[in-house]
Specification:
The protein has 307 residues and is of the alpha+beta class. It has nine helices and 16 strands. Strand 8 (187-193) and strand 9 (196-202) form a beta hairpin. Helix 2 (48-58) crosses helix 3 (70-81) and helix 6 (154-162) crosses helix 7 (171-181). The chain starts with 5 loop residues before the first strand and ends with a strand.
Length: 307
């Protein structure tokens, strides 16, 4: 029962163009009505949720509620994975989604209605899924974990443009794609996938765990968050005209059938950039930097409440 657990609630007040902040009083009242025993905190700056969740774990909390979008959940997961106090799979996360893309929840049909989302958490049905781990090669920095999809290239460039249009919701990603058409340049890359090496000029390279990203786009062929494998799409030298012709195919999933897109199932891969201009890397819709990277699967590392 929810009343027998202690919960720590993390609210990103800027999520959903400020919707989290506006909706919090009603959400708080609903949690109290449902007899949740909880503490809460608002994020105050970028990546603050990483610190908040780690502090909560030290205080003994093992049940976390994320109120925000994909980025808020992404940072909470990274906070959990980077701590050593308890096994990360023991931390259980509930999601009340209020964000721009709300992509991860689409895989599990977690509703946008806050009351229904709270009911799902209260019912206590738990699932686990794999996480991806990104390590930066030749750079001294912490690894980054992701629960949905990571990519390098055009998709990272789109994410870099989305922020100024977030007030438009998921439409912001479509605008980002259109803006990217006029300024993004394809890059040369070497990709190592298990025993296969690919050298190509590329629009983007994607590693997916779940089905949707970028406000509902379907960019990988057959992702499964529980099979211990990445679903990889290598979009080769697609032109601006190719993208325009296939704009809606980004959303209906048929882009993976394009002759210039190759699909792979692997448990690890390395991506080395051979161009002077380093493309952006994004994970779960968050920009995480630039550089050469290695990705591998962390099996069943993410425990969460769902239907």
């Amino acid at each position: 029962m929810s009343s027998s657990k202690r919960w720590f609630v993390i609210i990103n007040p800027t999520s959903g163009n400020g919707s989290s902040n506006r909706k919090w009083p009603k959400i708080k009242a609903k949690l109290e009505l449902e007899e949740f025993d909880f503490n809460f905190a608002f994020t105050e700056y970028e990546n603050h949720s990483i610190e908040l969740v780690q502090s909560a774990i030290i205080q003994g909390f093992k049940n976390i509620i994320s109120i925000g979008g994909d980025g808020t959940l992404h940072n909470i997961i990274n906070g959990i994975q980077r701590q050593n106090s308890v096994n990360s799979s023991e931390i259980q996360i509930g999601v009340i989604p209020i964000g721009t893309g709300n992509d991860w929840i689409k895989t599990y049909k977690i509703p946008l209605d806050t009351g229904k989302a709270i009911s799902i958490i209260k019912n206590g049905n738990l699932r686990q899924q794999d996480l991806g781990k990104i390590e930066f090669l030749n750079l001294s920095r912490q690894p980054v974990y992701f629960n949905n999809l990571a990519g390098i290239g055009f998709d990272g460039f789109v994410v870099s443009k989305v922020g100024r249009y977030k007030y438009l919701g998921a439409l912001a990603y479509l605008i980002g794609v259109i803006v990217g058409l006029f300024s993004f340049k394809n890059f040369t890359v070497t990709i190592s996938l298990n025993d296969t090496e690919i050298k190509t000029k590329s629009l983007m390279v994607l590693a997916g765990l779940c089905k949707y990203s970028g406000g509902g786009m379907q960019l990988t062929k057959d992702p499964n968050p529980n099979d211990g494998l990445f679903d990889v799409s290598v979009a080769k030298d697609l032109t601006k005209l190719d993208i325009i012709k296939n704009l809606f195919n980004l959303f209906n999933g048929t882009i993976v059938k394009h002759s210039k897109v190759e699909n792979y199932k692997v448990d690890n891969l390395s991506i080395n950039i051979n161009s002077k201009v380093q493309p952006f890397i994004q994970a779960d819709g968050e920009l995480i930097g630039k550089g050469n990277i290695h990705l591998n699967i962390v099996p069943k590392a993410f425990t969460f409440y769902t239907n």
